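Suppose you are handed only these lines of text.
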Amino acid sequence: MAVNLLAIESSCDDTSASVIRDGIVLSNVVANQAVHQLYGGVVPEVASRAHQENILPVVSAALKKANVKPEELNAIAFTRGPGLIGSLIVGVSFAKGMALSLGIPMIEVNHMNAHVLAHFAEDPKPAFPFLCLTVSGGHTQIVLVKADDDMTVLGKTIDDAAGEAFDKTGKLLGLPYPAGPIIDKKAQLGEPTIVFPKPKVAGLNFSFSGLKTSIRYFLQKQRDENLNYIEENMNDICRSVQDRIVSVLLEKLETAAKQTSINEIAIAGGVSANSALRSGLTDLGNKNGWNTYIPAFQYCTDNAGMIGVAAYFKYLKADFVGHEVMPSARI
Ligand code: KG4
Ligand code: ZN
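From them, the structure of the protein bound to KG4 can be written out as follows.
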């Protein structure tokens, strides 16, 4: 008998639902919340309300697209955290209500683990143990993945996340939120004419807040001389900032690979959609003889498909949770 899971993701500003059959993603529906563009970042209260509006249509669309009826579901998976608590509450409560009404079990999923396990949605799949650079709007981690349920963070950011560095730079440049994809596009038309300082952090940890400050001072200084500096040099600024962020990420990843002697290397999370990071990893992999794993775009940014894929590992172990389960902003 086939195993059908419904997965729900609502940790930040995207409402997503997915149906997974025997570990294979049948549908992966994502409703973005454009409303946050007005504010230049995610407003938690606004995000919760938008999840509330989106969740029923998104779940219905995911079931319809997969051609699966609610009665055919075997379990419901949801993101328990980390994330915005008000956003998580919507997904968790919806999952509880639906699981209760259908009389089926629930599976809790850690959002960060799911970004890593998104690599099991498609072939080729990494072999354990592998290293995963997980880079999103909230996190920057190098993770040693020994098994689906055995992950150790070897290094992480001590301040801003890589995605945050893109988004905050975008704000300084007057770009809408989220700026990461826009900077990526503009960078492809620019040259790396500005060399921003490299953050100095020991070991495998990262720091991006100093970079943001140096960009701010650099732009202020240039604009004192030429008010149109940003507009006239937008593509080059984007390229220079992106090059710096990507080079820092890849340098630490290379160090981690050397230290652990692992040559199965993956990237995950929203920033793994970045074209320079993707091509940079491929080049580094060729140089070092790594097997590299880059997720398809739909599995980079937040999506319920990855929650379902992570949940299927747990389903096979009958690793379910009771209805007393609560969302957790920090896990
Ligand atoms: O994983 P994700 O969807 O949400 C979190 O869990 O945070 O990641 C969102 C982040 C945002 O900061 C966004 O600007 C960034 O991923 N991002 C990108 C690109 N696409 C998304 N950053 C750089 N280049 C991209 N192409
Ligand atoms: Zn995420």
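What can we learn from it? Residues 12, 136-138, 163, 166-167, 178-181, 184, 269-271, 273-274, 301-302 surround KG4 (ligand 1) (CB under 6 Å). The mean pLDDT is 97.
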